[in-house]
Amino acid sequence: MKTLSVDHLLGIKYLTAEDIHLIFETATQFKEVINRPIKKVPSLRDITIANLFFENSTRTKLSFELAQKRLSADVINFSAGQSSVQKGETLVDTVNNILAMKVDMIVMRHPYPGAAHFLSQQVNACIINAGDGTHEHPTQALLDAFSLKEKLGELEGKRIAIIGDILHSRVALSNIYALKMLGAEVRLCAPKSLLPKHIESLGVMVSTDLMSTLNWCDAANMLRVQNERMELNYFPSIREYSQYYGLTLERLKQLRKEILILHPGPINRGVEITSAVADSPHSIILDQVENGVAIRMAVIYLLASKLIIPTT
Fold it and tell me: Does some domain include residue 121?
């Protein structure tokens, strides 16, 4: 059996292209499973997984929990807002108490960059990063790339644009790593105030012109403006941002070709994307949601197999 080169999923930058292709192959098999009348497999009935979410989440948390239940794992859900973290308990103490209950794997979302990496060095359990601050969101990048591959074929040489709040986005960084690893060309588009300094060093192109970026790309991944992470005003107003960087049907009709539209959610309809675009045939947003379960099943299964059958 093929195995991943890593014992945790901490970020895309720790994976190899072979790892990504193995995850995609496994996700394809699980996608067939979740479209059957009986959607469960007994693969992980001896594995216990804890979901630790120190930040709010809807899609990611539900997607992970559904993936775990489809694999027949035992699942524990932990919400920081109703826990001893509010009383001052440290992250390591919280996790060690959970591990004392014989938990094998931890899926964690945390507001601080590097939290998943830190935890992997402190505790004896498999860690899956479900988003750490503005750093990485590896499973989102995997499901985005998988969704693109389904529609476009191999991503070698394909042109993918990431448009919106690049500065505060963990999705953008993980997507850059994954797409570059798979041979795609990547172009970022945003106001200068929402582009990180020296981002070109990751081998991407940068633009502030939405229409030229849309004309260039095969697919556009639209990111929301993350107001909750902003301590400053990065542009004059939401209305002005939408005027220059919002994706509308009128703008799509001006293009010389058809492109795919992605969005990791949650969508701010009428800001970075209109309802007419989000619900149009151009959009593969709901495909992303469906593929999210299959990708997370694949990641969990492949990492858990290393717990059950240690490699020699």
Answer: yes
Instruction: Verify that 87 and 131 share a domain, yes or no.
Output: yes
Give dist(CA 96, CA 92) in Å, integer. 6
Alpha-carbon distance 117 to 119, whole Å?
Answer: 5
Q: Name the pTM for this structure.
A: 0.94
| pLDDT tens digits, one per residue of 16-69 | 999 999 999 999 999 999 999 999 999 999 999 999 999 888 899 999 999 999
Distance CA(284)–CA(144), nearest Å, equals: 10
Count of structural domains within the chain: 2
Domain residue limits at 93: 12-137+290-308
Q: Give 160-172 pLDDT, tens digit per residue.
A: 999 999 998 999 9
Q: What is the pLDDT of residues 183-214, one digit of tens each?
A: 999 999 999 999 999 999 999 999 999 999 99
